[in-house]
What we know:
There is one protein chain. By secondary structure, the protein is an alpha+beta fold. The protein has a domain at about 15-140 and about 190-210: Beta Polymerase, domain 2, CATH 3.30.460. The protein is built from five helices and seven strands; from the N terminus they run αβαβαββββαβα. It is globular, with a radius of gyration of 19 Å. It starts with 14 loop residues before the first helix and ends with a helix. The model is unreliable at about 1-10 and about 180-195 (pLDDT under 50).
Amino acid sequence: MSLDKRPLVEPHSDIRLEKLHIVLLMMLDDFADICKKNDICWIGMYGTAIGALRHKGFIPWDDDIDICMPREDHDKFCEIVQRDYSDKYEIVNPLTCPNYPMTTTRFILKGTEFRDANLATMDFDSGIFLDLFPLDYLADDEKAFKKQAWHCWLYNKLAIARAEAQHAKKLLNEYYGDWMQKPPVSLYHGHYPNILYFGEYEPRVSAFSKDGPNG
Length: 215
């Protein structure tokens, strides 16, 4: 994805996504700059790659940026962000946040809040983020490859189950500590994302949305 002259969003998208795309592009610029300065390899993948090719920017309804990195570069990037950029960004993955249920890493902009529908009730800090997917080497031997694939699948399910169990325990204590109180039918509803908060970046994205990139 080119980092200049990128269309923000197609006309039929709502204003929340337009603002979100502005922040994501700012974060992508920072991400790319960190990688360039530290000789880190990365590539846009999945919906991000489709959007770049088909829409020359974002898929209109997309709400994140997907990035793949070799494991060594991923770990190096996380270490650099935690050491040198912790005033602005946060690294969230199973190593930094035990309640995080995924095996990916989130490069999160501090001072914002973003809750996607599938993880809306999970107990971990979640701001606007770039989704980082570390790439590991695969075994050449077929038997070793199947074992590796099984372990990856199992660890992913265990991480999700652990987070869901911890959250379920919290909900039970919260709503059934008093047997006279019943939990709501739905804690979160509506369009994805459920919660979106820009914090100190709200004036900037609002002005950008109104005046355009040259305003």
